[in-house]
Amino acid sequence: MIEWKQHLFAGLAVLFIGLAKAGFGGGLGMLITPLCVLAFDAKVAIGVLLPLLCAGDVFSLYHYWGKWDRSNLRFLLPGVVLGVLCGVQLIGYLNGTQLNQAIGVLAVAFVLFQVGKERIFRNDKKFAPNHAIGIPCGIGAGVTSTIAHGAGPVVSVFLIPQKLPKEIYVGTNVLVFTWINWIKLPFFVAKDIITQNTFLISLLYLPLIPLGVWLGVWLNRKFSEAQFLNLIYAFTFLAGVELIFHFDLTQWFR
Questions:
Q1: N or C: fewer beta carbons within 10 Å in the chain?
Q2: What is the dihedral of CA 30, 36, 40, 43, to 10 degrees?
Q3: How far is it, in rounded angstroms, from Cα 91 to Cα 46?
Q4: Domain of 138?
Q5: In 3D, which of 99, 97, 240 has the Cα closest to residue 249?
Q6: CA 43 to CA 96: how far, in whole Å?
Q7: How far apart, in whole angstroms, are the C-alpha atoms of residue 109 and residue 97?
Q8: Chain segment 211-231, per-residue pLDDT in tens
Q9: How far is CA 200 from CA 1, 49, 138, 206, 242, in A?
């Protein structure tokens, strides 16, 4: 892939981090890694994205400071640590093709989850969070976040049934993902997933984070998310299928 294609896919991925952290496009998060994998090797893409996600978390924390249910950390984080430990070992065992396919499967599963979640959570009964459910969900979130930065569906399975007020739900998501990302950071450095090379690439794209946040705030004021999200889900599904079967969709840009 020539350089401009790398900049196109990676730049869009990083811009989408800013958009998602600004609260616009709840489904954007799962598109970020598949897009970046179309630009780089899967392991490189995961390493490049984590410092940028951590930078984006700073903006989210500022915007939603204190608007969260902190008790969820107590139930999820023990499992998250175990999941991250398992995830970094999996990355070591998977070759590039297998890692691409794993990321693709998670992307497709995310879209199917988004389509079906209204039926899944139709039960009016409010769920009281506990360790019995929180630790397995935390492990799932840790593993999926480590190999694909894609823990959204797992965390949603734990948070949505609690029927939190919308702002508290979003703020709790922000808090949980901030902790997950910062827990991953030392493991990624120790396992050479984040290297000097990937960090320099992260710095190259860092200015797109505040630009994406600003764009997300502007879009929130001007447009409805509904049609935008349908487009995002379609792109996420296509990117996932591409990573699973490698149809080389990038040839369209030649």
A1: C
A2: -40
A3: 10
A4: 3-253
A5: 240
A6: 7
A7: 18
A8: 988 887 777 667 666 666 676
A9: 20, 11, 31, 10, 27
- What digits encode the pLDDT tens for the residues 46-56? 999 999 999 98
Rounded Cα–Cα distance for residues 219 and 210 (Å): 14
Residue 79: closest CA among 130, 155, 137? 137
Could you tell me the pLDDT band of residue 2, with boundaries at 50, 70 and 90? very low
> Cα separation of 104 and 98, whole Å?
10
Q: What's the pTM value of the predicted model, to 2 decimals? A: 0.81
Angle at 181 between CA 46 and CA 141, to 5 degrees: 85
At residue 239's C-alpha, the angle toward residues 237 and 244, to 5°, is: 95
Q: Is the pLDDT of residue 246 over 80?
A: no
**Structure tokens, 187:** 């493991």
Buried b (16+ CB within 10 A) or exposed e, 91-120: beebeeeebbbbbbbbbbebbebbeeeeee
* Number of structural domains found in the chain: 1
The Cα–Cα gap between 136 and 209 comes to 32
